[in-house]
Amino acid sequence: MKLNNLEFLLMNNPVRSYVQENYELPILRKMISLDKFESVLEIGCGSGNGTKIIKKYFNPLRITAIDLDEKMINIAKQKNNDTNINFTVADASKLDFPDKEFDAVFDFGIIHHIPNWRECISELKRVLKLNGELIIEELSLDTFKGFPGIIWKSLLAHPYKQMFTTGEFVQHLNNVGFSIKHFKESNPLKMIRHFSLTAKLK
């Protein structure tokens, strides 16, 4: 699903960019086992900030970055003038890529937006190469419980009825054939509870 106006503002500002690069990324970098990526997929690339970070810190030969919102893809293209990056409008639960296409898939907080998230996981599994790595930073239904989670829930348009808990998400990865290599829950400033993980196919 596409972002509402508030979510668009939250995801497209210097604070979000700073947190993503200086807080979220260091956690993920410690978890990632691969030394080199040739081909990388980023789902829900938004304005392209995550794409820029992937390029800067991992320098893969090719990055494919997708988003459901054409407006976001256009913004990302304007911000990232790199011939090795292909920005395209696409649905992460219905990927139009061959099997075993990518060394790694990055998700910077997109899967919780997808009502049919299990189909998305199946697609990510399909397009990952053998020994490919799933690299995830996500929110879950647990994020929107208690305070201030209930405030976020009232402001943000998410598919709450279909959304996973953290435990359900991890269990589903195991059920479909992923092995969790690293996992960490975080709640910076007691504001946004989320989790980070890396996983490989068993």
Strand and helix map with partners:
Layout: H1 5-11, H2 14-31, E1 39-43, H3 49-58, E2 62-67, H4 70-79, E3 85-89, E4 102-108, H5 117-127, E5 128-138, H6 146-155, H7 166-175, E6 178-186, E7 194-201
Report on the structure:
The chain has helices spanning 5-11, 14-31, 49-58, 70-79, 117-127, 146-155, 166-175, and strands at residues 39-43, 62-67, 85-89, 102-108, 128-138, 178-186, 194-201. By secondary structure, the chain is α/β, with parallel strands linked by helices. It has a single domain (5-28, 36-188), classed as Rossmann fold, CATH 3.40.50.150. Strands 3-2-1-4-5-7-6 form a 7-stranded mixed β-sheet, sandwiched between helices. The two termini are 30 Å apart. 36% of the residues are buried.
Q: What is the end-to-end distance? A: 30 Å
Mean pLDDT across every amino acid position = 91
Q: Which residues sit in consecutive blocks of at least 5 with pLDDT less than 50?
A: none
Q: Radius of gyration in whole Å, from Cα?
A: 16 Å
CATH-assigned fold name: Rossmann fold
So, the CATH homologous superfamily?
Vaccinia Virus protein VP39
Structural class determined from secondary elements: alpha/beta
Order of strands side by side in the largest beta sheet? 3-2-1-4-5-7-6
Secondary structure: helix percent: 25-40%
Element pattern in H and E: HHEHEHEEHEHHEE
What is the C-level CATH assignment?
Alpha Beta
CATH A-level architecture: 3-Layer(aba) Sandwich
Largest sheet: 7 strands, mixed
Work out the number of β strands. Answer: 7
Helix segment tally: 7
Strand fraction: 25-35%
Instruction: Provide the number of structural domains.
Output: 1
The rough form would be described as globular
